[in-house]
């Protein structure tokens, strides 16, 4: 640290280049921290559990060709046949499929005469829907009644429901388990909560309350119906083919959609994945540009101070002292830039929080980012610092005399 005072004097003597360097570090740090945080935030969305057995589940959207009065019987017949197909472990009818972008939005309240407390997605189906989805019941119990039948909007006739833990926590933040057995109001209609499942996402991945979902034992008999199928390991492709073969045996049948849940999730999060990769490449590219800038600044400083370096070497300074001098100088300038960058990054993040509903960058993220920036600066300065240490005292002195 004995070089600290000479470094400060040198920087004070020539302020323009160090000031520009500090501003470069501050600006780069501000952008890098926010870009990296946004990239990680986007990437974390991809790994959120949907609640389903994602690797072994597919769905098919098909039409019901019979009259409205006979559709419930057709659904039972279809489910019985699909469940008996080789490789199929469970099959259910459902009013929608998570993350497909098509579903129903409900208003949820704990009091009959109050405004809604939050929103939720909705899934109606038979009593095997929880098993087909692969949902984990964390409180209460499953459905007790025989599924009701409605042509559409099954939540209007449901009397008992199962909700997700995220929705329970939103309604009863002090103790979410007490929601079991309570009556809550779905679009102003009273319904009893029989159980709570760990996770089930709604139909829209971008929704701020995507973890809020309601399940009801109601079979909807509209013209089109979703069949959700869960298969054994390695049997999904065969089960899908046989399901389609069975459904197409009936005259007038059409297959509107047929997808594995892996495909559904990939399509739903395509925008987040693209944004995440773009931001990561921005971080990588900007880091490389910053490293080149630091390298250039350090090399320029070495070239400009060859006489000074030669004098120090002639006075007995060892090579490691010269290396340490330039490394310390870079560390000081980089640390100052990081400090200014932290302030700028937090101010920018506040704006991003307002615009994109992002959480505030945590302090440890800024700390880690600052440490990475400091290490990047040290790595980029290492080569010029060793170049400075290799300067011969005699040659440098002669060059100074010629000048």
Automatic annotation (TrEMBL):
Coiled-coil stretches: none
Domain ABC3 transporter permease C-terminal: 283-393
Spans traversing the lipid bilayer: 20-40, 279-302, 322-348, 354-377
Cellular localisation: Cell membrane
Pfam name, any one: FtsX
InterPro entries the record matches: ABC3_permease_C, MacB_PCD, Macrolide_Exporter_MacB
GO molecular function per UniProt: transmembrane transporter activity
GO terms under cellular component: plasma membrane
Residue ranges annotated for the MacB-like periplasmic core domain, each copy included: 57-243
Keyword flag Cell membrane: yes
Keywords (A to Z) from UniProt: Cell membrane, Membrane, Transmembrane, Transmembrane helix
Membrane topology: Multi-pass membrane protein
Assigned protein family: Belongs to the ABC-4 integral membrane protein family.
This protein's name: ABC3 transporter permease protein domain-containing protein
Species of provenance: Pseudoalteromonas rubra
């Amino acid at each position: 640290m004995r070089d600290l005072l000479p470094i400060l004097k040198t920087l004070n003597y020539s302020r323009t280049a160090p000031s520009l360097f500090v501003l470069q570090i501050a600006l780069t740090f501000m952008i890098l921290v926010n870009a990296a945080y946004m990239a990680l935030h986007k990437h974390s969305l991809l790994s959120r559990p949907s609640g389903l057995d994602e690797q072994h589940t597919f769905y098919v959207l098909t039409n019901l060709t019979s009259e409205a009065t006979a559709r419930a019987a057709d659904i039972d017949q279809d489910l019985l046949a699909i469940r008996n197909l080789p490789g199929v472990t469970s099959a259910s009818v459902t009013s929608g499929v998570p993350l497909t972008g098509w579903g129903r939005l409900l208003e949820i309240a704990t009091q009959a005469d109050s405004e809604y407390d939050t929103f939720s997605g909705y899934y109606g189906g038979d009593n095997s829907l929880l098993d087909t989805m692969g949902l984990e019941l964390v409180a209460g119990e499953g459905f007790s009644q025989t599924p009701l039948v409605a042509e559409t909007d099954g939540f209007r006739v449901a009397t008992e429901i199962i909700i997700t833990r995220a929705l329970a926590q939103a309604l009863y933040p002090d103790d979410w388990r007490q929601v079991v057995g309570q009556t809550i109001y779905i679009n102003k209609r009273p319904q009893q909560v029989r159980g709570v499942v760990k996770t089930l996402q709604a139909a829209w991945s971008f929704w701020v309350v995507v973890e809020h979902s309601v399940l009801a034992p109601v079979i909807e008999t509209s013209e089109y119906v979703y069949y959700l199928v869960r298969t054994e390991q390695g049997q999904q492709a065969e089960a899908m083919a046989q399901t389609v073969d069975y459904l197409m045996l009936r005259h007038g049948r059409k297959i509107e959609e047929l997808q594995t849940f892996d495909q559904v999730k990939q399509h739903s999060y395509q925008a987040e994945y693209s944004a995440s990769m773009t931001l990561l490449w921005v971080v990588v590219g900007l880091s490389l540009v910053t490293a080149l800038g630091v390298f250039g600044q350090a090399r320029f400083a070495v070239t400009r101070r060859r006489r000074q370096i030669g004098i120090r070497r002639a006075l007995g300074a060892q090579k490691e002292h010269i290396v340490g001098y330039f490394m310390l100088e870079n560390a000081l300038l980089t640390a100052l830039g990081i400090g200014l960058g932290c302030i700028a990054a937090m101010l920018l993040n506040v704006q991003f929080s307002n615009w994109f509903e992002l959480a505030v960058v945590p302090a440890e993220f800024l700390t880690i980012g600052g440490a990475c920036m400091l290490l990047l600066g040290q790595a980029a300065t290492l080569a010029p610092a060793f170049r400075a240490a290799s300067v011969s005292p005699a040659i440098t002195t002669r060059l100074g005399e010629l000048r």
